[in-house]
Amino acid sequence: MKNIFPMDEYNHKLVSYVHPQNWINPTPKVKYDLVVIGAGTAGLVVAAGASGLNLGLKIALVEKHLMGGDCLNFGCVPSKAIIRSAKVIGEIFKAKNLGIKVTETEVDFALVMERMRKIRAGISHHDSAERFKNLGIDVFFGEARFLTNNTLEVEGQNLTFKKAVIATGARAVQPQIEGIKEAGFLTNETVFSLTELPKSLAVIGGGPIGCELAQAFHRLGANVTLFHKYDHILNKEDRDAAEILQNTFIQEGINLVLNAQILKVEKTNEGKKIYYISNNMEDSIIVDQILIGAGRMPNIESLNLEAVGVEFNDNGVKVNNYLQTTNPQIFAAGDICLPYKFTHTADAAARIVIKNTLFSPFGFGKSKFSDLVIPWVTYTAPEIAHVGLSEHQLLERGLEYETITIPMASVDRAIADEETEGFVKIHHQKGSDKILGATIVASHAGEMISEITSAMVNKIGLNGLSSVIHSYPTQGEAIKKAADAYRRKLLTPTSQKMLALLTKFS
Length: 506
Known about the structure:
Layout lengths: L8 H10 L13 E6 L3 H11 L7 E5 L5 H5 L2 H19 L14 H15 L5 H6 L3 E4 L2 E5 L2 E4 L2 E10 L3 E3 L7 H4 L16 E5 L3 H12 L3 E5 L11 H14 L2 E3 L2 E8 L4 E7 L2 E7 L1 E4 L3 E3 L13 E2 L2 E2 L12 E3 L10 H16 L16 E4 L4 E6 L2 H6 L4 E7 L4 H5 L6 E7 L5 E8 L2 H13 L4 H5 L10 H13 L3 H13 L1
């Protein structure tokens, strides 16, 4: 099976669920109400959600490789399992300050990767072909190709449909670097097949994927060099947040090469030699492995979209605000069409597609993608979480806003946890408590951002958050502190004087 190595008991179990070797495609129905192409997060949610309506719909689901898509097989699940192991090393870094003497640490990389495979296999039944078959969905394995406006082909069989959903996802960008193909490189689809830790690893790309894996592999014992073409890592994030993580990387010993341009790669007896320019200086480095973490490209090549009038470009399938393609009977969801390539966004988009394909034709209101409030997290240490508009976007749009920043160093639990690096930063509309966006840098930022996301979705402002009792001591108390800081700003000089007098004579 492509990219699934080693074939131990756990990967055998995984494959038995997500692409059974003895699977026989069913005989197609005369016409399907809905055909879903791609069984990653978006496709699975559309298919299962439509089936769960109990309307007697005829539904087909097509997958050419592994059900579960990137999230289960090559993304969220395996990466977070490895990051969890690496987090233990991060705790050991702090042990001395916490009064714990650690005399010896040994990382069993093979066991780390075995644990990852065990976890992945253990939850794969949720995305299994058998489960979806039991939901009444016809599951087809093979490459889908549109033939006409209402027909596509899979493994020589024609599937006729009323509506279709494209959810074929995206994959790692193949780098256009001289010699790298011959030298060999890893992507998110192959790095989780490693069983031996590379002594030295070059990570190309300082975005979320590159940063997460660079820190994890470094903590697990690899000598990591991170190449990034901009002057600081995570260049799309809040600059203050990116600076904290960059300083953490430097302190931990990750070699950062910024303003980098890779010239070429050579395979030598010593390893893979990377020639590059950084800050106008030419240099080179030899590493055992190269990991590409620089961008994603849509999986559109084999779909024959021209045959059904679905427009696309290098970013993927073109959709309107209702996730409808240029063919009104065909919709799209997930990484194939969205700028936010996250599992939770694919899930939310799939729910929009279910409503807009099955309910809106009967007079129910349509759902808009632009109405979503989308958080995201970079799972480094510390984590960086964001929701809503960034400072850059606020300035770009000419919106008047104010910012409240609470450093984690002022939060009692963060001090007790020895986790004071970071902050809670909330942007609110000037003259109002309406929250426009937020960035959190903290050990548990991914958990904390949900409170602000919930407030934004339910149109609760800083006044509302200020009235919420937060357990003490928790790191989430930083959000309460930010809301209280807003309330204090409402006090006019006159009211402050009155309060001072009342306090004096009480």
